[in-house]
Amino acid sequence: MIKMIDLPYPINALEPYYNRETLAIHYETLYKGYVDKTNNILEKLEKMRNEGNFEAVKCLEKDLSFQGSGAILHQLFFENMAEASLESTLSEKLMNRITQDFGSFEKFKEQFTESSKVVEASGWNLLVWVPKFKKLEILQCEKHQNLTLWGCKPLLVLDMWEHSYFLQYKSKRPEYIEAFWNIVNWNKVNERFENIDI
After folding, report:
1. How far apart are CA 195 and CA 142, in angstroms?
2. For residue 5, is it within any domain?
3. Would 84 be classed as within a structural domain?
4. Model pLDDT for residues 76-112, shown as the tens digit of each residue
5. Residues 178 and 121 in one domain
6. Structure confidence by residue, pLDDT tens digits, 114-155
7. Claim to verify: residue 111 and residue 71 sit in the same structural domain
8. Which residue among 90, 146, 165, 168 is least enclosed by CB atoms within 10 Å?
């Protein structure tokens, strides 16, 4: 079974860039829903194995891919945000890698921003390390589990599902994305990058 993470900051800590009401709904209802549904599916899969009845295996494994990916990506998303007042900067190691793979931090930020704007309907935008390519890439991920590269390691995650911004920003996606840059927890992103075997 998987557990919900505790938010690493108070529920109102991301204001004014991400308001309390949006974060509360996003964390307490939507994220909790993914965790609960994932655990329910895991229980059903265990029961299926114990009974030797695999009639529902296709449906359950498809649901696990969707719900489980939703739970994981939401955890990464909540963890890679922090109060705007937090001392948070890119490590020299990650900055050097971003410069090597994107040309400069400004070019990376522009590409990530523009890529986020055009994520289709329900999806995510991610900065990832791709071991097979030996480089950083930006990926759009639809419906949590689609359009992934096998083996990639998520470093920075931005939720582009409408539920993540519509209450506060309505249809103004670009404003949500610009606000996000004020609350990125680069310390957490650095930590994820440090744990990669390059």
Report:
1. 26
2. no
3. no
4. 999 999 999 998 999 999 999 999 999 999 999 999 9
5. yes
6. 999 999 878 999 999 999 999 999 999 988 877 677 889 999
7. no
8. 146
